[in-house]
Specification:
Helix content: 40-55%
Structural class: alpha/beta
Shape: globular
Number of strands: 6
Strand order of the largest sheet: 3-4-2-1-5-6
Strand content: 5-15%
Distance between the termini: 26 Å
Bound molecules: 3-methylbut-3-enyl trihydrogen diphosphate, magnesium ion
Length: about 240
């Protein structure tokens, strides 16, 4: 089995999982955290290099004040709770997105957790929080423009390779597989630049029900794909 080096997941369907059970939406988010634990463990075991999880999109701040604040609280609790275990499993943590929106205690805990786990050499866990693919490209363009204005680079130096160094996933392996749970067939402003040649996998399973078997199914589907990257191996029939 060919294990993707880099998997990203749009963890969707928490609200529907909860409403099917007549529970508040936050109960779905809480249950979703268990699925995150399972998938992080499974990816570490399989030897995936990087796992990027979409936890909160730049558009999710438009949800009710109550849901947003409960999500911030959950994020803070989980960060605090899990750091020790992640460290034990040699997981490196990277948080991407515009964290300035988050309450100060969340920003502080996020920075501390990243520092604590920075030297680990196992799975890199990337959490996208208040992240948008359009935001990422715009902030990279801003950095490139600033480098030109300062005279550090010339406009013609802004190649695809150089530009990608300013993006949030700089230094991570190319994104091999993007998974979205809950049956929605869209990207919802996730990793727009990075999905150029990713394989896409959609499942109807709601995120809180996603488990190791679901991950295996996605990887199996990935193995059945013929990744051509625009070229052809040969022209015979
Ligand atoms: C995904 O689940 C989690 C976040 C966006 C934070 P949703 O909350 O979008 O769940 P559905 O799509 O309403 O079921
Ligand atoms: C995408 O899900 C964001 C996350 C899973 C964090 P949404 O539920 O916000 O996406 P839409 O609204 O269905 O496009
Ligand atoms: Mg959703």
């Amino acid at each position: 089995m060919n294990i993707p080096k880099h998997i990203a997941i749009i963890m969707d369907g928490n609200g529907r999982w909860a409403s099917k059970r007549c529970l508040p939406r936050i109960a779905g988010h809480q249950q979703g955290v268990n699925a995150v634990r399972t998938v992080v463990k499974a990816c570490g075991k399989l030897g995936v290099k990087t796992l990027t999880l979409f936890a909160f999109s730049s558009e999710n701040k438009n949800r009710s004040k109550e849901e947003v604040s409960l999500l911030f609280k959950l994020f803070l609790t989980v960060l605090k709770q899990e750091v020790k275990k992640l460290n034990k499993h040699n997981v490196r943590l990277k948080i991407i997105g515009d964290l300035s929106l988050f309450p100060e205690d969340v920003q502080k805990t996020a920075a501390e957790a990243q520092m604590q786990l920075a030297d680990n050499t196992g799975l890199t866990l990337v959490i996208a929080a208040n992240y948008g693919g359009q935001w990422d490209i715009a902030q990279a363009a801003k950095q490139a423009a600033e480098a030109v204005v300062k005279g550090n680079i010339k406009p013609e130096d802004v190649t695809i390779e150089r530009f990608s160094n300013y993006l949030s996933l700089a230094g991570e392996p190319a994104l091999d597989l993007l998974i979205r749970s809950s049956g929605e067939l869209r990207i919802s402003n996730f990793l727009l630049w990075d999905i150029a040649y990713s394989e896409l996998y959609f499942t109807d399973t709601l995120w809180p029900d996603f488990n190791e078997a679901e991950l295996q199914k996605a990887i199996k589907s990935f193995n059945d794909r013929d990744r051509r990257f625009g070229s052809r191996k040969d022209n015979s029939c």
